[in-house]
Write a structure and sequence with these properties.
The complex is a heterodimer.
Chain A lengths: L9 E12 L2 E13 L4 E5 L6 H8 L8 E10 L2 E2 L5 H7 L4 E4 L13 H11 L5 H14 L5 H4 L9 H13 L5 E5 L7 H18 L2 E6 L2 H7 L2 E6 L2 E7 H6 L4 H8 L39 H5 L5 E4 L2 E3 L12
Parallel strand pairs in A: 3-8, 3-9, 6-7, 7-8
Antiparallel strand pairs in A: 1-2, 1-4, 4-5, 9-10, 10-12, 11-12
Helix pairs in contact in A: 3-4, 4-6, 6-7
Chain B lengths: L1 H25 L3 H6 L2 H18 L1 H4 L36 H36 L1 H15 L3 H12 L3 H28 L2 H8 L4 H37 L11 H8 L8 H28 L6
Helix pairs in contact in B: 3-5, 3-12, 5-6, 5-8, 5-10, 6-8, 7-8, 8-10, 9-10, 10-11, 10-12, 11-12
The chains are: A alpha/beta, B mainly alpha.
Membrane topology (chain B): Multi-pass membrane protein
Protein name (chain B): Peptide/nickel transport system permease protein
Family (chain B): Belongs to the binding-protein-dependent transport system permease family.
Chain lengths: 332, 306
């Protein structure tokens, strides 16, 4: 499905995004590293508040500053650190070579402009001077995302479209300038299940057609299994596990990942109650000396509670941040 | 997946058809839709008549608005003792009220429109900028608080002392006093819009701050701001009248609706029409401006057409 080009398209190294609040510094993203190959799909999973959305905004440099700030790390796009680019250079990159799809299709389109105008605007911001050509391109994009009768719908306002149609428009908008990297922040969460399947199918299809790499942020392991090549699991602002998708589902190594998987209901086993991970995410301003998952972890030892586990390589493309790894199957 | 795709495809096609049929009515021009709103049509007709009367006052006036006559305090024609010569009667100095209303609405409308135009523009820009550039927010808003603590009447007094009596210092005083109100209201609206996801989406598409401000923030706030400004228009006319009453606005022989009302106060018990008629005209202007503003918002704001 993907050709293994060695140089990654996007490489995030030890990214730290902090928010200064009255209650103290909130380390939303605390030393996150991952890389995305050309044409590949990387999934970032984790529960609400684990920092996955902040990571995606951080890569686009869309963190509101203040209160947010980049406290360290690098975001290399084709080897260049975009955190060092000027705002002007960054603007060319955004919507140009990097596209983004948002979670809420209902509120992510400007309600006072037609969808065609919004796509045209994005095209014109990236060098399309001819308005007629830009309009033709907008219709072409709407057709590409399979919006019915794009020639007439191009003049519709967002409120005239359904949620699934709006998400298609968002995808058209993000892909209008042929981006090499597409960041999709929970693109299907706000949609109902049949539409979710259509949108995922569409994204898979478009990736094959356009060859752009995708970073897919989700909390849905089913979505990850279906669409991703590699997976990064995040917990409380840190990466706890990284693996190619098949390896992750075959033998997850971090107790948190195992907990997440156990929490997914299975079709082949009758259960009365769904599995949960006991406890909740530690409050972000709390500075824990050890592993942040230790309080909820069934395998935690005193060592886990006193020293933070480093993210260590355990195989090709695999890494895990756990003192107890590798975990034997019995533990799951 | 493909099954779901295939089974929903005809459904999607069917769903797409009705909007196609429904398309003509919703693509009607905003003007045509405005005409369907009876109250708005009535309000704008009345407002149009008053504006027409104000513009063509010299042609329509039956008398010279500044010349006294012998018939003092004549009631309007429909009342006992009314004269056909003076449609709306005469004031305490025997001047024809109908003619003075025509000339008076000229000045009143001018003062209202110009001051609200200037004040509303500057104020809403300050409000939008402080919502857009959060760094400026605290500074601009504290500045607005300072301006808010300075009453329009006092400002008018100071300006008249420096510039002399006339319409210009009144316009300036009213414009300046409209700025903080407009700034605070538009900031409130804009802060709400800035929290919407499409602002972030606009940034993610690579729009410049200028485009984002104009096309995403301003366009989403403008209808609400226009409503506020149309309400403010009424207030400004009233404050303008108060300033005239204090002798700060139009100079006495000149006709101005607010001043006419306050002069009529002296005759309220035996010739109430002198105060009531200009007041009713002010009331009609303010009411029609509000109704028309509201209707325009309904028509121009695509979010309300769902």
């Amino acid at each position: 499905m993907t050709d293994p080009t060695d140089a990654p398209l996007l490489e995030v190294r030890d990214l730290q995004v902090h928010f200064d609040t009255e209650g103290g510094t909130f380390r939303a993203v605390d030393g996150v590293s991952f890389s995305v190959r050309r044409g590949a799909t990387l999934g970032i999973v984790g529960e609400s508040g684990c920092g996955k959305s902040v990571t995606s905004l951080g890569v686009m440099r869309l963190i509101p500053r203040p209160p947010g700030r980049y406290a360290g790390g690098e975001v290399l796009f084709e080897g260049k650190d975009i955190l060092k680019l000027s705002e002007n250079e960054m603007r060319k990159l955004r919507g140009g070579r990097m596209g983004m799809i948002f979670q809420e299709p209902m509120t992510s389109l400007n309600p006072v402009y037609t969808i065609g105008d919004q796509i045209i605007e994005s095209l014109r911001a990236h060098g399309w001077k001819d308005k007629a050509k830009a309009r033709a391109r907008a219709i072409e994009m709407l057709d590409l995302v399979r919006l019915p009768s794009p020639e007439t719908r191009v003049d519709d306002f967002p409120h005239q479209l359904s949620g699934g149609q709006r998400q298609r428009v968002m995808i058209a908008l993000a892909l209008a300038n042929d981006p090499e990297l597409l960041i999709a922040d929970e693109p299907t969460t706000a949609l109902d299940v049949t539409i979710q399947a259509q949108i995922l199918e569409l994204m898979r299809d478009l990736r094959e057609r356009t060859g752009s790499a995708i970073v897919l942020i989700t909390h849905d392991l089913g979505v990850v299994a279906e669409t991703c090549d590699d997976v990064v699991v995040m917990y409380a602002g840190k990466v706890v596990e990284k693996a190619p998708v098949a390896d992750l589902f075959a033998s997850a190594q971090h107790p948190y990942t195992l907990g997440l998987m156990a929490a997914v209901p299975r079709l082949d086993a009758r259960t009365d109650r769904l599995e949960t991970i006991p406890g909740s995410v530690p409050p972000p301003y709390l500075q824990l000396p050890g592993c942040r998952f230790a309080g909820r972890c069934p395998l935690a030892t005193d060592h886990c509670r006193s020293a933070p586990p480093p993210l260590k390589e355990i195989g090709p493309g695999r890494a895990v941040a756990c003192w107890r790894a590798p975990i034997e199957e019995a533990a799951a | 997946m493909t099954l779901a795709e295939a089974s929903t495809a005809p459904a999607a096609a069917a769903a797409a058809a009705p909007p196609e049929d429904a398309a003509p009515p919703r693509r009607k021009s905003w003007f045509r839709r405005l005409l369907r709103d009876k109250a708005a049509v009535a309000a704008m007709t009345v407002l149009g008549i008053i504006i027409f009367g104000a513009i063509f006052a010299p042609l329509l006036a039956t008398h010279d608005p500044y010349v006294n006559s012998r018939s003092v305090m004549t009631p309007p024609v429909w009342q006992a003792g009314g004269e056909a010569e003076h449609l709306l009667g005469t004031d305490g100095q025997g001047r024809d009220i109908f003619s003075r209303i025509l000339y008076g609405s000229r000045l009143t409308l001018l003062i209202g429109l110009v001051s609200v135009g200037i004040g509303g523009f500057i104020g809403s820009m300050i409000g939008l900028l402080s919502a857009f550039y959060t760094r400026l927010d605290a500074w601009l808003m504290r500045l607005m608080d300072m301006m808010l603590s300075f009453p329009a009447i006092l400002l008018g007094l100071a300006l008249v002392a420096v510039m002399g009596q006339g319409a210009v210092p009144v316009i300036i005083a009213l414009a300046v006093s409209s700025i903080p109100d407009c700034a605070r209201i538009s900031r409130g609206i804009a802060v709400g819009v800035m929290k919407m996801e499409f602002i972030e989406a606009g940034r993610a598409v690579g729009l410049s701050d200028r485009d984002l401000f104009r096309k995403y923030l301003l366009r989403n706030c403008i209808s609400s701001i226009m409503i506020f400004i149309s309400l403010r228009f009424g207030q400004v006319i009233l404050i303008g009248a108060a300033l005239s009453f204090l002798g700060l606005g139009a100079r006495p022989p000149m006709a101005e609706l607010g001043m006419m009302a306050s002069q009529g106060r002296d005759y309220l018990l035996f010739a109430p029409h002198i105060a009531v008629i200009p007041s009713v005209v002010i009331f009609i202007i303010v009411l029609c401006a509000n109704v028309a503003g509201d209707a325009l918002r309904d028509v121009l704001d695509p979010r309300l057409q769902a």
